[in-house]
TrEMBL record:
One of its GO terms (biological process) is peptide transport. Transmembrane segments: none annotated. One of its GO terms (molecular function) is peptide transmembrane transporter activity. Keywords: Signal, Transport. This is ABC transporter substrate-binding protein. It comes from Natrialba swarupiae. Belongs to the bacterial solute-binding protein 5 family. Residues 267-587 form the Solute-binding protein family domain. The keyword Disulfide bond does not apply.
Amino acid sequence: MTGTPRHSGTAPSGSNSDFSRRAMLAGTASATVAASGCIRQFRTTVNRDGIDQLSISITTVPADSDRESIQLTRAIRESLEAAGMDVSIEMKAQEEFLRTVLVNHDFDVYVANHPGGDPDSLYESLHSQYVDEAGWQNPFGFANLAFDDLLEGQRSADDEDREAAVATTLEAFAAEQPFVPICVPQEYRLARTDRFDGWDADLAPTALAYLGLEPTEEGIESLRLVHTDARLSENLNPLSVEYRDAGTITELLYDSLAVAVPHEERITGWLADDWTWTDGTMSVELREDVTFHDGERLTAEDVAFTYRFLADTTLGETDVPAPAPLFRGRVAAVDEIDVVDDGRLEFSFGVGEPAAERALSVPILPEHVWRPRSEPATASGVRVAAGTTEALVTGNVPPIGSGPFAFVDVEERDHVSFERFDEHFTRRTSVSLPEPTVERLRVAIDPRSASAIEVINGNDADVTNRPLESYVVDDVLETTPEDVGVLESPSRRFYHLGFNARKAPFSNPRFRRVVAGLIDKAWLVEDVFDGYARPTAVPVTAEWTPESLAWDGADPETPFLGTDGEVDVSAAAAAFEEAGFQHDGDHLRVRR
């Protein structure tokens, strides 16, 4: 069972009540966002009438969706309560949670697993232009013009300047704490090594992990995945922020111009046979004779349509654009697209080459299928927000792409089946890319890691598509049969506490910094993740973490206000008072 933080009244040896030099600089720069929160709290300290204990709700998912998220939430609740807040937990099913947080922005704080982890994701996660959009584009409502400049600078930097630009951005992030990164889990998957050779943990969770596998004997014609998230069988829309998570199945169904190679920080050509980069212009040449699964030819017009459609699914038919919540930050890097001929395009970018190459990784959609979905959405008995298009609500069954596998059938909460698309360009002898080596691919739905392990060990599946939950890892490492391999890889995802900066006091960086100091990340890694994670102060992979923010036994910017999971009540009260909030020793109070 997960323990909960305890609290005491003894001051710790260290405190984060004093801002660092970075925090003071960032605090000055962030006056535009923090003003309303700071003024409100200043008035609270002057006028003591009408002041109540701060009550907040933490939104998260139940254990059957993400066991670690609810355990983190419970532990954080205990810490916040020890610091004088009245805290409740609001649990929502995964798709409802994502709709609440990413679409409706109707929350105080939340705990979840963030899909980012690379510097490019910082731009879409935190730039102020995205505060009113849906998706992982700034669900926090964080708005800071000085920070925008840093985000734009690191996004525009080329390779030789990018590391320094990213480090500067992360220094400002740590000072502002727009959200609190907690830890990066280590990922473990199981794979049947007696049926396939070529498993590569570093390629998970991308489609590349399932291409190029070699059956160990003749007659193996199916690759069997077991998947612990039923949403895959409920909706196959590649643009749905509520139903899409990791892009494995999307990448198997839809080709992109290029694909990212995990943990190598590089992009390799896919649908694009070649490209050249010159002063912000990218000339892209497509592979010849590519077709969609329905037999229609894929041309440069489909590629251009895709980028325009993802930027505005109404295709300019309304006064307010309706961008696709997924891939928003990537297509925003594109300024213009010119179709040269059926097989060539020219992209104009306002960003550096690394960010421009990331823009090549969106799924290419068939125009003849998706153009009709630019119409306003209608759903019987369901309230649809103004501006929502059919593209954003369709279940997309059957999905039509051009990828290495084509859709066959689906049974909700049971399975999704695919067959090899033999016309795919990876099957050509002239193309040197990993290809589908089996005729069929079946994804079985199984709700929990423990039962998914049994399916693998019983030889009813070949690989766990999603990483195993941390509580089973000890047993997996000790009892896995010889014909089953354990695939271990660092995650690009991270767990975090997200603030809704549209509301006070979460709009105040001083408040956010104190809350960050109430989270004992190292203790949570041991207690919730059984040690199979690493605590972090920044929302990027280890290779992008600057030395000044590297974890060295404690958070370098907001060290924990306590010891071994125990919040020090006196230190927490002093930190809130120093930040301009009223704390009477037992309760943190704000104006009604």
